[in-house]
Design brief:
This protein has 239 residues and is of the alpha+beta class. The chain has helices at 2-69, 169-174, 178-187, 189-197, 200-222, and strands at 73-94, 97-119, 129-132, 137-142, 146-153, 161-166, 230-235. Strands 1, 2, 5 and 6 form a four-stranded antiparallel sheet that branches. A three-stranded mixed sheet has the order 3-4-7, covered by helices on one side. The longest helix is centred in the first third of the chain and has 68 residues, at 2-69.
């Protein structure tokens, strides 16, 4: 009877010891699995960060490359009105003296001339593009629009060209003056159109249209990559 009791106590102690070891082993295994899971999660997070960063860099390169391939972006065809004033003084030189014979004047108003404006996208480099990943904003600096000297259409309809002026008494007597000035103005109309097209008023209109066209173009490039991005366009100072 005593031996049976001693044997039972021995078995009970062994059972408690086994259970204690089993619990410690389980805690150790869980700790190892927890550490392993944390390590794997951290690694995946780092991999994700690298992937996003790499994708962003590729996006910036793609933007610059896509813009450069288009060379130039036509942003506007403007109707340009030319308002040009001219004068011609008639002088008679005799015996070393100059005698004024009056001044003829002319004002030409030519409506409906056409000029095309474009932005030279080939001049944009990666240094002109800045991506802010925190607020998802793309800032791009672009050259200002250019009035294309090869895409100028001057008015040829006489009804759209108005001549106002007066002849000097000398030119009136000889039947010239204003007529000669009108011909000179028509011969130089293309130069007048380009000069007017490059004035601050027309350039401001071209920049407004360029802003819209550039935003539309950049949206087609960027939105498939980052739909929530914000686009900011700045024009460089003219050279």
């Amino acid at each position: 009877m005593r031996e049976e009791k001693l044997q039972a106590n021995f078995l009970s102690r062994n059972a408690r010891l086994f259970l204690t070891l089993l619990i410690l082993f389980s805690v150790l295994v869980l700790g190892l699995f927890g550490r392993l899971a944390y390590t794997i999660t951290s690694t995946l997070k780092q991999a994700a960060k690298v992937e996003v960063s790499s994708s962003t860099n590729i996006s910036i390169y793609s933007v610059a490359n896509s813009l450069q391939r288009q060379s130039k972006l036509v942003v506007q065809t403007a109707l340009v009105t030319v308002d040009q004033s001219m004068e011609k003084e008639s002088v008679l030189s005799m015996g070393g003296f100059a005698f004024g014979l009056g001044t003829s004047s002319l004002r030409m108003i030519s409506m409906g001339n056409r000029v095309q404006y474009y932005v030279p996208l080939k001049d944009i480099t990666e240094s002109d593009i800045n991506w802010n990943s925190e607020n998802k904003t793309l800032l791009i600096r672009v050259p200002p629009p250019i009035a294309d000297s090869e895409m100028v259409e001057i008015q040829t309809d006489p009804k759209q060209i108005l001549f106002l002026g007066k002849d000097s008494w000398f030119d009136w007597a000889r039947g010239g003056g204003k007529t000669e000035l009108a011909q000179e103005a028509k011969d130089n109309l293309r130069n007048y159109v380009l000069r007017t097209a490059r004035s601050r008023y027309y350039m401001s209109l071209a920049e407004e249209n360029a802003q819209r066209e550039l935003e539309r173009l950049l949206c087609t490039i960027l939105y498939p990559i980052e739909p929530q991005c914000r686009i900011v366009i700045e024009f460089k100072s003219p050279k």
